[in-house]
Amino acid sequence: MTDSRLAVVVMAAGQGTRMRSRRAKVLHPIAGVPLIGHVLATAAQLGPAHVLAVVRHEREAVVAAIAELAPDARVVEQDEVPGTGRAVELAVQALPEGFEGEVVVVSGDVPLLDSATLASLVAAHREASAGATALSAVLEDASGYGRVIRDAEGGFHRIVEQKDASEAELAVTEINSGTYVFSAAALRAHLPAVTTENAQGEKYLTDVVGLVREAGGAVVAVPVAQPWLVAGVNDRVQLAEAASRLNAMIVRGWQLAGVTVHDPATTWIDLTVSLAEDVEILPNTRLSGATSVERDAVIGPDTNLVDTEVGEGARLSRTDATLAVVGAGATVGPFAYLRPGTELGADGKIGTFVETKNARIGRGSKVPHLSYIGDTTVGEASNIGAGTITANYDGVAKHRTSVGSRVRTGSHNVFVAPVTIGDGAYSGAGTVVRKDVPAGALAISVAPQRNQEGWVERNRGA
Ligand code: UD1
Ligand code: CA
Known about the structure:
Elements: E1 3-12, E2 29-30, E3 33-34, H1 35-45, E4 48-55, H2 59-69, E5 74-77, H3 84-94, E6 102-107, H4 115-127, E7 132-138, E8 147-150, E9 156-160, H5 167-170, E10 174-183, H6 184-190, H7 207-214, E11 219-223, H8 236-256, E12 260-261, E13 267-269, E14 274-275, E15 280-281, E16 285-288, E17 292-293, E18 298-299, E19 303-306, E20 309-310, E21 315-316, E22 319-322, E23 325-326, E24 331-332, E25 336-338, E26 343-344, E27 349-361, E28 366-378, E29 389-391, E30 401-403, E31 414-416, E32 419-421, E33 426-427, E34 432-433, E35 442-443, H9 455-460
Parallel strand pairs: 1-4, 1-6, 4-5, 7-11, 12-15, 13-16, 14-17, 15-18, 16-19, 17-20, 18-21, 19-22, 20-23, 21-24, 22-25, 23-26, 24-27, 25-27, 26-27, 27-28, 28-30, 29-31, 30-32, 31-34, 33-35
Antiparallel strand pairs: 2-3, 6-10, 7-10, 8-9
The chain binds uridine-diphosphate-N-acetylglucosamine and calcium ion.
Calcium ion (CA) binds near residues 232 and 234.
């Protein structure tokens, strides 16, 4: 699998000024994965012997992310000399001395490029025994990009940056995508000779193309099949465009895998999510993180699941859940808020306007209406009355409520934790349960109702 003659350099040292963000550009996520994570994953799919990531701006955060996303990647620090040429020069110096072969260069802010495109670029490069091969794209609006300059026969000459280009060169619509394959030897031979004498005062990697050609080497520019594959993210508009394009591919992939998605435009699925066949997703639904959904479950509309496990045949409507587990056949919502540590058993119910947190609600148990259940364990086949609140916080510490199996609590109860309600117990409407309720008992805490006959006529009569 590993190609011992292949190295990939991921350039990620740039500032990302146009994002106007305190966060490094390459750490902004799409589909739940930082931009650089997509690039590192694509790099890994090529099976290179070496992956190097060049960093400088927001160094610590970027290095931490790389360590998590691609522990095998080597981090290279760029120095104060600016430019893509310097980035790659330092990366090549970090390669083992005896490395001979090809160096693929990609940008940490071009997240949609796939490994098949890169593999065919490597193949074209090797086929032509080229010194440098650039992936180009023909764009309607080429402004901002380096232009691919060809001769009358269509041969690739060099790349000129927008800021250094003449009027005639600016009219060229074939652009340099910023993705390349170089022979390691060509980089070693020519990068030291690249200067910063240009409009931006940077060492341009693109100058290597011209230098290879002047030295008699072959250079190739291969147009990419679809320009969006090489779309870079420089600002938040492009971030949203890339996110939307990737999401459309993810949704389509799940549809082809047997998931019914009613409205792809309002369904957002992270790359990290897993779905079974015959899952159904209704509009305005976002599935994030390590969320997984089993067969026949129906999710949505208006549902947001983060790191949540949904069992077979469960139904969640208008639900917001994080780090929750919903059992097979259970129903949740509409309008439910499942906070971390919620575990709803099979065939259970968390109903309308219910908030749960750190709550294990057993098989077949129900919290149907208007409740807050926190730091609580409920056994099996119990029913918590409408409007029940667990008073789990005494102002200093959180306490647990324990409800047994086959319990029926009345409407509008308060469980003042710590408190235990035994198996099969009942409570009356409006009970404030401050003391443990033994199994099989009925708890009542409200004063008996008194009716004063004729009160209205006596007190409010004309
Ligand atoms: C670069 C190309 C340009 C191409 C464009 C495609 C050069 C000189 N120009 O221009 O021909 O059309 O990409 O998007 O290469 N980076 C570093 N160290 C640096 C500077 C940049 O690692 O000192 C990284 C950035 O983080 C980014 C990538 O290199 O990932 C590209 O840098 P950027 O400044 O965006 O290059 P462009 O000016 O857009
Ligand atoms: Ca760029």
